[in-house]
Specification:
Helix content is 51%, strand content 8%. With 283 residues, it is α/β, with parallel strands linked by helices.
Amino acid sequence: MEWEGQEESSNVEDRRQFPVKAAAIGGGGLVIVLVAMLLGVNPQKLLDMFGGQGQPANPQGGQVERKADPAEERLASFTKVVLRDTEVVWDKLFRKMGKTYRVPKLVLFTERVDSACGMADSAVGPFYCPGDSNVYIDLSFYKDMERKLNAPGEFARAYVVAHEVGHHVQRLLGYTARIEGIRSETKNQRSVRLELQADYLAGVWAHYGKEKFKLNEADINSALNAAKEIGDDRLQKKARGYVVPDSFTHGSSAQRQRWFRRGYQTGNVEGAQQLLELPYDEL
């Protein structure tokens, strides 16, 4: 995947320099906070007294800014480039449909972040919040993809970003409301439809980005591998040794691969309708 030197999105809010203090509290820090609450005092004062188990305080007030890490900054640049291309691709596709594409904002954060959808820990992974139309990502997730999920590769990372943007696209097109309105299915089944549709839309974006980024078979395979590794069945098998299909919220590995590949091969936005129309057992 050739992305360096490509235009970056400016529609980015970088909160990495201002991590939420509570995010760094360990077991001992949690005890201190509880004691402080019982005594009616400021928990941060006690944390500072007992070794500063929260985020370090700046003597001049506020918080100490994190030092820039060249490797992390490269990942940030990469993410901005991918986001910019999704802006270009979806703007063109929306225009063809006679619609206006309203771009989502990318929020980069460290450890924990406050969004219109509530406080979220980096452990939840990248996510899209419909309440503020923002895509949130802690760049450390890319390392987790490689080390913990066995999903390396730059285009695997691009697939993750495009998937979250896909949630924004499906909301703008009205798919989210329609899928959530399917009352004949469980909440989990509706969630699977939404996630597979976001995979499909990520594939549609990749279809139009293959020339710009000089995508090759290895790139596409890295995205398909990522889709496999984050399938509900594979994650459940790793975590507890067995699979419970009724508890799926994102779809199986095979489903996630199939719908991403279908979007990539066709580049047809209207194909996303299938995720509304097909019986659940045929997804």
